[in-house]
Protein backbone atom coordinates (compact mmCIF):
# COMPACT_ATOMS: atom_id res chain seq x y z
CA UNK A 1 0.00 0.00 0.00
CA UNK A 2 1.27 3.43 -0.91
CA UNK A 3 0.44 5.13 2.37
CA UNK A 4 1.68 8.48 1.24
CA UNK A 5 -0.66 8.41 -1.71
CA UNK A 6 -3.54 7.32 0.49
CA UNK A 7 -2.85 10.17 2.90
CA UNK A 8 -2.88 12.63 -0.01
CA UNK A 9 -6.19 11.22 -1.23
CA UNK A 10 -7.84 11.47 2.16
CA UNK A 11 -6.43 14.84 3.17
CA UNK A 12 -5.76 16.79 -0.03
CA UNK A 13 -6.30 20.10 1.77
CA UNK A 14 -3.73 19.48 4.50
CA UNK A 15 -0.39 21.03 3.61
CA UNK A 16 1.23 21.14 7.03
CA UNK A 17 3.10 18.43 8.89
CA UNK A 18 3.03 17.74 12.63
CA UNK A 19 6.49 19.32 12.83
CA UNK A 20 4.90 22.66 12.06
CA UNK A 21 2.83 22.36 15.23
CA UNK A 22 5.77 21.02 17.23
CA UNK A 23 7.46 24.32 16.52
CA UNK A 24 4.37 26.43 17.01
CA UNK A 25 3.72 24.88 20.42
CA UNK A 26 7.18 24.28 21.87
CA UNK A 27 7.95 22.58 25.17
CA UNK A 28 7.03 25.02 27.90
CA UNK A 29 10.43 25.18 29.53
CA UNK A 30 8.99 25.28 33.04
CA UNK A 31 11.06 24.52 36.11
CA UNK A 32 11.53 20.89 37.15
CA UNK A 33 8.42 19.58 38.88
CA UNK A 34 6.08 22.24 37.47
CA UNK A 35 2.88 20.66 36.28
CA UNK A 36 0.69 21.57 33.37
CA UNK A 37 -2.92 20.60 33.98
CA UNK A 38 -6.12 21.21 32.15
CA UNK A 39 -9.82 21.21 32.76
CA UNK A 40 -11.59 20.09 29.63
CA UNK A 41 -15.37 20.27 29.87
CA UNK A 42 -17.86 19.72 27.09
CA UNK A 43 -20.39 22.55 26.94
CA UNK A 44 -23.34 20.24 27.30
CA UNK A 45 -25.02 21.75 30.33
CA UNK A 46 -24.49 23.68 33.48
CA UNK A 47 -21.32 23.43 35.54
CA UNK A 48 -21.57 20.34 37.71
CA UNK A 49 -20.26 20.37 41.26
CA UNK A 50 -18.01 17.47 40.17
CA UNK A 51 -16.66 19.80 37.48
CA UNK A 52 -15.87 22.49 40.00
CA UNK A 53 -14.19 19.83 42.12
CA UNK A 54 -12.08 18.65 39.16
CA UNK A 55 -11.16 22.17 38.10
CA UNK A 56 -10.07 23.00 41.61
CA UNK A 57 -7.76 20.00 41.58
CA UNK A 58 -6.26 21.20 38.28
CA UNK A 59 -5.75 24.75 39.45
CA UNK A 60 -4.34 23.78 42.84
CA UNK A 61 -1.95 21.25 41.30
CA UNK A 62 -0.59 23.87 38.94
CA UNK A 63 -0.44 26.51 41.69
CA UNK A 64 1.35 24.25 44.13
CA UNK A 65 4.05 23.40 41.56
CA UNK A 66 4.32 26.84 39.92
CA UNK A 67 2.98 25.30 36.76
CA UNK A 68 0.16 26.12 34.38
CA UNK A 69 -3.52 25.24 34.37
CA UNK A 70 -5.77 25.89 31.42
CA UNK A 71 -9.39 25.62 30.39
CA UNK A 72 -10.08 23.79 27.15
CA UNK A 73 -13.56 23.55 25.69
CA UNK A 74 -14.25 20.14 24.19
CA UNK A 75 -17.05 20.89 21.78
CA UNK A 76 -16.62 18.12 19.24
CA UNK A 77 -20.00 16.62 20.00
CA UNK A 78 -22.24 19.26 18.49
CA UNK A 79 -25.35 17.15 19.07
CA UNK A 80 -25.02 17.33 22.82
CA UNK A 81 -23.94 20.95 23.00
CA UNK A 82 -26.26 23.57 24.45
CA UNK A 83 -26.36 27.22 23.39
CA UNK A 84 -24.97 28.93 26.42
CA UNK A 85 -22.88 25.96 27.57
CA UNK A 86 -19.59 27.86 27.46
CA UNK A 87 -21.00 30.85 29.35
CA UNK A 88 -22.48 28.53 31.97
CA UNK A 89 -19.03 27.06 32.60
CA UNK A 90 -17.17 30.37 32.57
CA UNK A 91 -19.74 32.11 34.79
CA UNK A 92 -19.57 29.23 37.23
CA UNK A 93 -15.81 29.53 37.51
CA UNK A 94 -16.00 33.32 37.75
CA UNK A 95 -18.41 33.10 40.65
CA UNK A 96 -16.16 30.73 42.54
CA UNK A 97 -13.03 32.68 41.65
CA UNK A 98 -11.42 29.64 40.02
CA UNK A 99 -8.87 31.11 37.67
CA UNK A 100 -6.89 29.20 35.09
CA UNK A 101 -3.55 30.44 33.84
CA UNK A 102 -4.55 29.98 30.20
CA UNK A 103 -7.40 28.97 27.98
CA UNK A 104 -10.92 30.02 27.24
CA UNK A 105 -11.95 33.11 29.21
CA UNK A 106 -15.37 33.82 27.74
CA UNK A 107 -17.49 33.34 24.68
CA UNK A 108 -14.98 33.75 21.83
CA UNK A 109 -12.13 34.97 24.07
CA UNK A 110 -9.06 33.20 25.37
CA UNK A 111 -5.55 33.80 26.68
CA UNK A 112 -2.30 31.86 26.26
CA UNK A 113 0.08 30.82 23.49
CA UNK A 114 -1.09 27.23 23.06
CA UNK A 115 -4.51 27.93 21.61
CA UNK A 116 -6.98 27.85 20.12
CA UNK A 117 -8.33 26.28 23.29
CA UNK A 118 -11.65 25.30 21.75
CA UNK A 119 -11.57 21.99 19.94
CA UNK A 120 -13.91 23.00 17.14
CA UNK A 121 -11.26 25.53 16.10
CA UNK A 122 -8.49 22.95 15.90
CA UNK A 123 -9.69 20.81 12.98
CA UNK A 124 -6.55 21.46 10.97
CA UNK A 125 -4.31 20.24 13.76
CA UNK A 126 -6.20 16.97 14.17
CA UNK A 127 -6.29 16.39 10.45
CA UNK A 128 -2.58 17.08 10.10
CA UNK A 129 -1.81 14.49 12.74
CA UNK A 130 -4.34 12.10 11.21
CA UNK A 131 -2.71 12.49 7.82
CA UNK A 132 0.69 11.65 9.30
CA UNK A 133 -0.78 8.52 10.91
CA UNK A 134 -2.13 7.42 7.52
CA UNK A 135 1.30 8.05 6.01
CA UNK A 136 2.82 5.78 8.63
CA UNK A 137 0.24 3.08 7.97
CA UNK A 138 -1.22 3.56 11.45
CA UNK A 139 -4.66 4.73 10.40
CA UNK A 140 -7.06 3.84 7.60
CA UNK A 141 -10.42 4.95 6.24
CA UNK A 142 -13.44 2.86 7.09
CA UNK A 143 -16.51 3.00 4.88
CA UNK A 144 -18.78 0.79 6.95
CA UNK A 145 -22.30 2.12 7.21
CA UNK A 146 -24.29 2.33 10.43
CA UNK A 147 -26.25 -0.74 9.31
CA UNK A 148 -23.10 -2.73 8.67
CA UNK A 149 -21.79 -1.82 12.10
CA UNK A 150 -25.07 -2.84 13.68
CA UNK A 151 -24.88 -6.21 11.88
CA UNK A 152 -21.33 -6.69 13.08
CA UNK A 153 -22.48 -6.07 16.59
CA UNK A 154 -25.28 -8.61 16.26
CA UNK A 155 -22.84 -11.20 14.98
CA UNK A 156 -20.49 -10.54 17.86
CA UNK A 157 -23.32 -10.80 20.35
CA UNK A 158 -24.17 -14.25 19.04
CA UNK A 159 -20.68 -15.55 19.75
CA UNK A 160 -18.95 -15.66 23.09
CA UNK A 161 -16.45 -12.87 22.35
CA UNK A 162 -15.37 -10.95 25.43
CA UNK A 163 -14.64 -7.83 23.47
CA UNK A 164 -17.00 -6.24 21.02
CA UNK A 165 -16.05 -3.68 18.46
CA UNK A 166 -14.13 -3.07 15.29
CA UNK A 167 -10.98 -5.15 15.44
CA UNK A 168 -9.12 -8.11 13.96
CA UNK A 169 -11.22 -10.18 11.63
CA UNK A 170 -14.25 -7.95 12.20
CA UNK A 171 -12.45 -4.91 10.87
CA UNK A 172 -13.65 -5.20 7.30
CA UNK A 173 -12.01 -2.05 6.01
CA UNK A 174 -8.64 -2.69 7.62
CA UNK A 175 -7.17 -4.29 4.56
CA UNK A 176 -8.91 -2.54 1.70
CA UNK A 177 -6.62 -2.02 -1.26
CA UNK A 178 -5.76 1.43 -2.49
CA UNK A 179 -7.91 0.77 -5.56
CA UNK A 180 -10.92 -0.16 -3.43
CA UNK A 181 -10.45 2.94 -1.35
CA UNK A 182 -10.08 5.10 -4.41
CA UNK A 183 -13.26 3.74 -5.90
CA UNK A 184 -15.18 4.21 -2.64
CA UNK A 185 -13.96 7.78 -2.48
CA UNK A 186 -14.89 8.34 -6.11
CA UNK A 187 -18.40 7.12 -5.31
CA UNK A 188 -18.51 9.70 -2.57
CA UNK A 189 -19.00 7.15 0.21
CA UNK A 190 -18.64 8.70 3.62
CA UNK A 191 -15.74 7.44 5.70
CA UNK A 192 -14.31 7.68 9.17
CA UNK A 193 -10.65 7.35 9.99
CA UNK A 194 -9.68 4.47 12.25
CA UNK A 195 -6.56 3.66 14.17
CA UNK A 196 -4.85 0.50 12.97
CA UNK A 197 -4.38 -0.91 16.42
CA UNK A 198 -1.18 -2.81 17.05
CA UNK A 199 -2.49 -4.27 20.29
CA UNK A 200 -2.76 -7.98 20.95
CA UNK A 201 -3.31 -9.99 24.12
CA UNK A 202 -0.62 -8.16 26.11
CA UNK A 203 -1.02 -5.94 29.15
CA UNK A 204 -0.31 -2.30 29.77
CA UNK A 205 0.71 -1.02 33.15
CA UNK A 206 0.49 2.62 34.06
CA UNK A 207 1.09 4.51 37.23
CA UNK A 208 -1.95 6.57 38.17
CA UNK A 209 -0.86 9.45 40.38
CA UNK A 210 -3.86 8.95 42.68
CA UNK A 211 -4.41 5.20 42.41
CA UNK A 212 -0.93 3.79 41.90
CA UNK A 213 -0.11 1.01 39.44
CA UNK A 214 -2.97 -0.15 37.24
CA UNK A 215 -2.71 -3.11 34.91
CA UNK A 216 -5.11 -3.50 32.01
CA UNK A 217 -5.37 -5.43 28.75
CA UNK A 218 -3.88 -3.67 25.75
CA UNK A 219 -6.24 -1.94 23.38
CA UNK A 220 -7.04 -3.96 20.28
CA UNK A 221 -9.93 -1.90 18.91
CA UNK A 222 -9.46 0.10 15.72
CA UNK A 223 -10.88 3.17 17.36
CA UNK A 224 -12.43 5.95 15.29
CA UNK A 225 -10.10 8.95 15.23
CA UNK A 226 -11.98 11.26 12.89
CA UNK A 227 -15.70 11.12 12.28
CA UNK A 228 -17.11 11.38 8.77
CA UNK A 229 -17.25 15.18 9.04
CA UNK A 230 -13.53 15.32 9.84
CA UNK A 231 -14.19 16.13 13.51
CA UNK A 232 -12.09 14.09 15.93
CA UNK A 233 -13.43 11.76 18.57
CA UNK A 234 -12.70 12.56 22.19
CA UNK A 235 -9.88 10.00 22.25
CA UNK A 236 -7.97 11.41 19.33
CA UNK A 237 -8.52 15.04 20.32
CA UNK A 238 -7.26 14.19 23.80
CA UNK A 239 -3.96 12.86 22.44
CA UNK A 240 -3.39 15.76 20.02
CA UNK A 241 -4.43 18.52 22.41
CA UNK A 242 -2.71 17.29 25.52
CA UNK A 243 0.44 16.81 23.49
CA UNK A 244 0.47 20.19 21.75
CA UNK A 245 -0.71 22.06 24.81
CA UNK A 246 2.11 20.31 26.63
CA UNK A 247 -0.01 18.89 29.41
CA UNK A 248 2.07 16.98 31.94
CA UNK A 249 -0.78 15.69 34.11
CA UNK A 250 -4.12 14.60 32.75
CA UNK A 251 -6.39 14.87 35.75
CA UNK A 252 -9.89 13.67 34.96
CA UNK A 253 -12.78 11.65 36.32
CA UNK A 254 -12.40 7.95 37.07
CA UNK A 255 -14.90 7.09 34.34
CA UNK A 256 -12.00 7.51 31.90
CA UNK A 257 -9.77 4.82 33.42
CA UNK A 258 -11.10 2.19 31.04
CA UNK A 259 -9.99 4.33 28.08
CA UNK A 260 -6.36 4.60 29.18
CA UNK A 261 -5.09 1.65 27.08
CA UNK A 262 -6.61 3.29 24.03
CA UNK A 263 -5.06 6.60 24.91
CA UNK A 264 -1.63 5.23 25.61
CA UNK A 265 -1.66 3.47 22.26
CA UNK A 266 -2.73 6.68 20.56
CA UNK A 267 -0.01 8.77 22.18
CA UNK A 268 2.56 6.19 21.13
CA UNK A 269 1.22 5.92 17.59
CA UNK A 270 1.56 9.68 17.25
CA UNK A 271 5.07 9.54 18.66
CA UNK A 272 4.13 11.54 21.76
CA UNK A 273 5.30 11.18 25.31
CA UNK A 274 2.45 9.73 27.38
CA UNK A 275 1.34 12.22 30.04
CA UNK A 276 0.86 11.23 33.65
CA UNK A 277 -2.70 10.28 34.46
CA UNK A 278 -4.55 11.04 37.68
CA UNK A 279 -8.12 9.75 37.84
CA UNK A 280 -10.15 11.57 40.45
CA UNK A 281 -12.91 9.87 42.43
CA UNK A 282 -16.53 10.56 41.68
CA UNK A 283 -18.61 12.89 43.78
CA UNK A 284 -21.21 10.72 45.50
CA UNK A 285 -24.14 11.20 47.83
CA UNK A 286 -26.22 8.97 50.04
CA UNK A 287 -29.49 8.25 48.29
CA UNK A 288 -32.34 9.40 50.53
CA UNK A 289 -34.54 6.48 49.60
CA UNK A 290 -32.16 3.54 49.52
CA UNK A 291 -29.47 4.80 51.91
CA UNK A 292 -26.84 3.68 49.39
CA UNK A 293 -24.04 5.74 47.96
CA UNK A 294 -24.58 6.85 44.40
CA UNK A 295 -23.24 9.34 41.90
CA UNK A 296 -24.69 12.85 42.16
CA UNK A 297 -27.26 12.97 39.41
CA UNK A 298 -27.99 15.96 37.21
CA UNK A 299 -31.60 14.87 37.04
CA UNK A 300 -32.35 14.02 40.66
CA UNK A 301 -30.10 16.25 42.72
CA UNK A 302 -30.41 20.02 42.53
CA UNK A 303 -27.07 20.30 44.34
CA UNK A 304 -25.35 18.67 41.35
CA UNK A 305 -25.39 22.08 39.64
CA UNK A 306 -23.14 24.79 41.01
CA UNK A 307 -26.02 27.21 40.41
CA UNK A 308 -27.73 25.65 43.42
CA UNK A 309 -25.05 27.08 45.70
CA UNK A 310 -25.03 30.43 43.98
CA UNK A 311 -28.79 30.84 44.19
CA UNK A 312 -28.91 29.61 47.76
CA UNK A 313 -26.28 32.17 48.67
CA UNK A 314 -23.48 29.92 49.86
CA UNK A 315 -20.36 32.06 49.85
CA UNK A 316 -17.90 30.81 47.29
CA UNK A 317 -15.31 30.49 50.06
CA UNK A 318 -17.53 27.95 51.83
CA UNK A 319 -18.05 25.78 48.80
CA UNK A 320 -14.34 25.85 47.95
CA UNK A 321 -13.41 25.17 51.55
CA UNK A 322 -15.79 22.25 51.67
CA UNK A 323 -14.57 20.82 48.37
CA UNK A 324 -11.04 20.98 49.73
CA UNK A 325 -12.02 18.86 52.70
CA UNK A 326 -13.16 16.28 50.14
CA UNK A 327 -10.13 16.69 47.91
CA UNK A 328 -7.28 16.34 50.37
CA UNK A 329 -7.44 14.32 53.56
CA UNK A 330 -5.02 16.62 55.37
CA UNK A 331 -6.89 19.82 54.58
CA UNK A 332 -8.86 19.88 57.82
CA UNK A 333 -5.69 19.53 59.92
CA UNK A 334 -4.09 22.33 57.95
CA UNK A 335 -7.19 24.47 58.48
CA UNK A 336 -7.12 23.93 62.23
CA UNK A 337 -3.47 25.00 62.30
CA UNK A 338 -4.14 27.96 59.96
CA UNK A 339 -7.65 29.13 60.78
CA UNK A 340 -7.53 32.37 58.84
CA UNK A 341 -5.21 31.50 55.94
CA UNK A 342 -6.40 31.75 52.36
CA UNK A 343 -6.95 28.37 50.72
CA UNK A 344 -4.46 29.23 47.99
CA UNK A 345 -1.79 28.81 50.68
CA UNK A 346 -2.75 25.19 51.31
CA UNK A 347 0.10 22.89 50.17
CA UNK A 348 -2.05 20.79 47.89
CA UNK A 349 -0.78 17.35 46.95
CA UNK A 350 -2.44 15.18 44.32
CA UNK A 351 -1.02 12.08 45.99
CA UNK A 352 -3.07 12.79 49.11
CA UNK A 353 -6.33 12.47 47.21
CA UNK A 354 -8.48 9.57 48.11
CA UNK A 355 -9.18 7.16 45.29
CA UNK A 356 -12.58 6.11 46.52
CA UNK A 357 -15.66 8.24 45.95
CA UNK A 358 -16.02 11.54 47.75
CA UNK A 359 -19.22 11.81 49.68
CA UNK A 360 -20.85 15.17 49.13
CA UNK A 361 -22.74 15.96 52.28
CA UNK A 362 -24.89 19.09 52.40
CA UNK A 363 -25.05 18.99 56.20
CA UNK A 364 -21.27 19.11 56.41
CA UNK A 365 -21.19 21.89 53.82
CA UNK A 366 -23.58 23.87 56.03
CA UNK A 367 -21.27 23.43 59.02
CA UNK A 368 -18.21 24.42 57.04
CA UNK A 369 -20.08 27.43 55.72
CA UNK A 370 -21.17 28.54 59.20
CA UNK A 371 -17.53 28.53 60.22
CA UNK A 372 -16.46 30.42 57.14
CA UNK A 373 -19.15 33.07 57.57
CA UNK A 374 -18.51 33.40 61.30
CA UNK A 375 -14.97 34.69 60.71
CA UNK A 376 -15.98 37.21 58.06
CA UNK A 377 -16.04 40.87 59.04
CA UNK A 378 -19.38 42.65 59.35
CA UNK A 379 -18.50 44.73 56.30
CA UNK A 380 -17.84 41.59 54.27
CA UNK A 381 -21.09 40.01 55.36
CA UNK A 382 -23.00 43.19 54.57
CA UNK A 383 -21.49 43.35 51.07
CA UNK A 384 -22.14 39.68 50.37
CA UNK A 385 -25.73 39.75 51.58
CA UNK A 386 -26.45 42.90 49.58
CA UNK A 387 -24.90 41.44 46.45
CA UNK A 388 -26.74 38.15 46.75
CA UNK A 389 -30.08 39.77 47.59
CA UNK A 390 -29.78 42.22 44.70
CA UNK A 391 -30.14 39.28 42.32
CA UNK A 392 -32.18 36.75 44.26
CA UNK A 393 -34.34 38.79 46.64
CA UNK A 394 -34.55 42.42 45.46
CA UNK A 395 -37.25 43.31 47.95
CA UNK A 396 -35.10 42.28 50.88
CA UNK A 397 -32.12 43.96 49.24
CA UNK A 398 -33.95 47.30 49.25
CA UNK A 399 -34.76 46.89 52.93
CA UNK A 400 -31.32 45.66 53.91
CA UNK A 401 -29.40 48.37 52.07
CA UNK A 402 -31.74 51.25 53.00
CA UNK A 403 -29.67 51.88 56.13
CA UNK A 404 -26.20 50.34 55.65
CA UNK A 405 -24.99 51.45 59.09
CA UNK A 406 -27.92 49.74 60.78
CA UNK A 407 -27.62 46.55 58.73
CA UNK A 408 -23.88 46.34 59.19
CA UNK A 409 -24.40 46.72 62.93
CA UNK A 410 -27.05 43.99 62.76
CA UNK A 411 -24.76 41.48 61.10
CA UNK A 412 -22.00 42.51 63.47
CA UNK A 413 -23.86 41.18 66.51
CA UNK A 414 -21.71 38.42 68.04
CA UNK A 415 -19.16 38.83 65.25
CA UNK A 416 -15.61 40.18 65.09
CA UNK A 417 -14.72 38.59 68.40
CA UNK A 418 -12.64 35.52 69.26
CA UNK A 419 -15.73 33.33 69.62
CA UNK A 420 -18.09 34.43 66.90
CA UNK A 421 -21.56 32.96 66.60
CA UNK A 422 -21.96 30.29 63.94
CA UNK A 423 -25.59 30.45 62.91
CA UNK A 424 -25.63 31.48 59.27
CA UNK A 425 -24.70 29.04 56.52
CA UNK A 426 -25.93 30.97 53.51
CA UNK A 427 -27.03 34.47 52.58
CA UNK A 428 -30.59 33.39 51.89
CA UNK A 429 -30.96 32.72 55.64
CA UNK A 430 -30.15 36.27 56.69
CA UNK A 431 -33.60 37.69 55.99
CA UNK A 432 -35.31 35.28 58.30
CA UNK A 433 -32.49 35.26 60.82
CA UNK A 434 -32.79 39.00 61.43
CA UNK A 435 -36.45 39.47 60.54
CA UNK A 436 -37.25 40.96 63.99
CA UNK A 437 -34.88 43.84 63.32
CA UNK A 438 -36.88 45.07 60.34
CA UNK A 439 -40.45 46.23 60.98
CA UNK A 440 -41.44 45.27 57.45
CA UNK A 441 -40.46 41.66 58.08
CA UNK A 442 -41.55 41.27 61.66
CA UNK A 443 -44.62 39.35 62.74
CA UNK A 444 -45.06 38.99 66.45
CA UNK A 445 -45.50 35.56 68.00
CA UNK A 446 -45.64 35.55 71.78
CA UNK A 447 -45.79 31.81 72.35
CA UNK A 448 -44.13 31.00 75.67
CA UNK A 449 -42.21 27.93 76.80
CA UNK A 450 -44.38 25.62 78.86
CA UNK A 451 -42.64 26.42 82.13
CA UNK A 452 -43.57 30.12 82.02
CA UNK A 453 -47.13 31.25 82.59
CA UNK A 454 -48.70 34.11 80.67
CA UNK A 455 -49.35 35.98 83.90
CA UNK A 456 -45.69 35.80 84.93
CA UNK A 457 -44.57 36.76 81.43
CA UNK A 458 -46.89 39.76 81.44
CA UNK A 459 -45.55 40.81 84.85
CA UNK A 460 -41.93 40.51 83.69
CA UNK A 461 -42.46 42.45 80.46
CA UNK A 462 -44.48 45.12 82.21
CA UNK A 463 -41.85 45.64 84.87
CA UNK A 464 -39.10 45.74 82.28
CA UNK A 465 -40.73 48.65 80.46
CA UNK A 466 -39.97 50.77 83.48
CA UNK A 467 -36.56 49.24 84.17
CA UNK A 468 -34.48 49.07 81.01
CA UNK A 469 -32.12 51.83 80.00
CA UNK A 470 -30.21 52.09 76.75
CA UNK A 471 -27.57 54.07 78.59
CA UNK A 472 -26.48 50.89 80.37
CA UNK A 473 -23.35 49.03 79.46
CA UNK A 474 -23.75 45.31 79.07
CA UNK A 475 -22.99 44.47 82.69
CA UNK A 476 -25.42 47.06 83.98
CA UNK A 477 -28.00 45.82 81.51
CA UNK A 478 -27.77 42.30 82.84
CA UNK A 479 -27.56 43.40 86.45
CA UNK A 480 -30.86 45.16 85.96
CA UNK A 481 -32.52 42.01 84.66
CA UNK A 482 -31.13 40.11 87.65
CA UNK A 483 -32.46 42.72 90.03
CA UNK A 484 -35.94 42.24 88.63
CA UNK A 485 -35.96 38.54 89.46
CA UNK A 486 -36.64 38.34 93.18
CA UNK A 487 -39.58 40.74 93.43
CA UNK A 488 -41.24 38.71 90.67
CA UNK A 489 -40.67 35.36 92.41
CA UNK A 490 -37.71 34.28 90.24
CA UNK A 491 -34.09 33.87 91.33
CA UNK A 492 -31.08 35.55 89.73
CA UNK A 493 -29.03 32.52 90.67
CA UNK A 494 -29.35 29.49 88.38
CA UNK A 495 -27.50 27.21 90.81
CA UNK A 496 -29.79 28.16 93.61
CA UNK A 497 -32.77 27.41 91.41
CA UNK A 498 -31.42 23.97 90.54
CA UNK A 499 -30.88 23.18 94.21
CA UNK A 500 -34.36 24.19 95.15
CA UNK A 501 -36.66 24.48 92.11
CA UNK A 502 -39.88 24.52 94.09
CA UNK A 503 -38.93 27.69 95.90
CA UNK A 504 -39.05 29.83 92.71
CA UNK A 505 -41.12 30.41 89.62
CA UNK A 506 -37.94 30.18 87.60
CA UNK A 507 -34.51 31.77 87.26
CA UNK A 508 -32.89 34.68 85.48
CA UNK A 509 -32.68 32.65 82.26
CA UNK A 510 -36.47 32.43 82.18
CA UNK A 511 -36.81 36.16 82.82
CA UNK A 512 -34.42 36.86 79.95
CA UNK A 513 -36.37 34.47 77.73
CA UNK A 514 -39.57 36.37 78.38
CA UNK A 515 -37.89 39.66 77.49
CA UNK A 516 -36.36 38.08 74.40
CA UNK A 517 -39.69 36.72 73.23
CA UNK A 518 -41.41 40.03 73.88
CA UNK A 519 -38.80 41.87 71.81
CA UNK A 520 -38.04 39.39 69.02
CA UNK A 521 -40.71 36.66 69.16
CA UNK A 522 -37.91 34.13 69.49
CA UNK A 523 -36.44 32.02 72.27
CA UNK A 524 -33.05 32.09 70.69
CA UNK A 525 -31.26 35.09 69.24
CA UNK A 526 -27.79 36.55 69.20
CA UNK A 527 -26.87 38.97 71.95
CA UNK A 528 -30.07 40.61 73.21
CA UNK A 529 -28.25 43.66 74.57
CA UNK A 530 -27.01 44.50 71.06
CA UNK A 531 -30.42 43.81 69.58
CA UNK A 532 -32.05 46.24 72.02
CA UNK A 533 -29.56 48.93 71.11
CA UNK A 534 -30.49 48.50 67.48
CA UNK A 535 -34.24 48.46 68.10
CA UNK A 536 -34.15 51.73 70.06
CA UNK A 537 -36.20 52.93 72.97
CA UNK A 538 -39.54 53.52 71.28
CA UNK A 539 -39.62 50.22 69.50
CA UNK A 540 -38.61 48.37 72.68
CA UNK A 541 -41.40 50.01 74.65
CA UNK A 542 -43.94 49.38 71.93
CA UNK A 543 -43.02 45.70 71.64
CA UNK A 544 -42.95 45.13 75.38
CA UNK A 545 -46.40 46.74 75.74
CA UNK A 546 -47.82 44.70 72.92
CA UNK A 547 -46.47 41.51 74.50
CA UNK A 548 -47.97 42.48 77.87
CA UNK A 549 -51.34 42.99 76.19
CA UNK A 550 -51.19 39.61 74.49
CA UNK A 551 -50.28 37.81 77.72
CA UNK A 552 -52.82 39.50 79.93
N1 LIG B 1 -14.60 16.47 27.64
C1 LIG B 1 -14.40 15.39 28.55
C2 LIG B 1 -15.56 15.41 29.53
O1 LIG B 1 -16.25 16.41 29.63
C3 LIG B 1 -13.10 15.61 29.28
C4 LIG B 1 -12.45 14.43 29.82
C5 LIG B 1 -11.01 14.77 30.17
O2 LIG B 1 -10.79 15.55 31.09
O3 LIG B 1 -10.11 14.28 29.49
O4 LIG B 1 -15.82 14.45 30.20
In brief, what are we looking at here?
This protein has helices spanning 3-10, 18-24, 49-64, 85-96, 123-135, 146-158, 178-186, 234-244, 260-270, 306-312, 316-327, 331-337, 362-374, 378-392, 394-402, 404-411, 430-433, 454-467, 474-485, 494-499, 508-520, 528-535, 537-551, and strands at residues 36-39, 68-71, 102-106, 109-111, 139-142, 192-195, 203-208, 212-217, 224-226, 249-253, 276-280, 283-286, 293-295, 358-359, 490-491, 506-507.
Describe the protein.
- The chain is α/β, with parallel strands linked by helices and 552 residues long.
- Helix content is 44%, strand content 11%.
- The chain is built from 23 helices and 16 strands.
- α14 crosses α16, α18 crosses α21 and α18 runs antiparallel to α23.
- The longest helix has 16 residues.
- The mean pLDDT is 95.
- The structure holds glutamic acid.
- The site of glutamic acid has 7 residues, from loops.
- Glutamic acid (GLU) binds next to loops.
Amino acid sequence: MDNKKLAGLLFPHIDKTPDYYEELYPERGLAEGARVTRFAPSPTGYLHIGGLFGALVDVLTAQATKGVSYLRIEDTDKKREIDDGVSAIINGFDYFGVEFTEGVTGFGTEKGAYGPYTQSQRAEIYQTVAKSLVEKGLAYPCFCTADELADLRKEQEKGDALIWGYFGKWAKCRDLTLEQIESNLAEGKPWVLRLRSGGSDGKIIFDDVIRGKIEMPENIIDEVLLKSDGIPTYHFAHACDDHFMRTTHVIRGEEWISSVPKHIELFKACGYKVPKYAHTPQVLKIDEETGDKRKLSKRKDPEAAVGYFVEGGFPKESVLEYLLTLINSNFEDWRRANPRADISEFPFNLKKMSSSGCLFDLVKLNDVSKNVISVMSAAQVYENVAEWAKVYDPEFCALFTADPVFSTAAVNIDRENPKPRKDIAKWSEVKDYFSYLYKELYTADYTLPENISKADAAAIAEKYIGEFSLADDKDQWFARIKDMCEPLGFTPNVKEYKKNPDAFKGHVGDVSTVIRIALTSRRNTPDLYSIMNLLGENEIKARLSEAVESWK
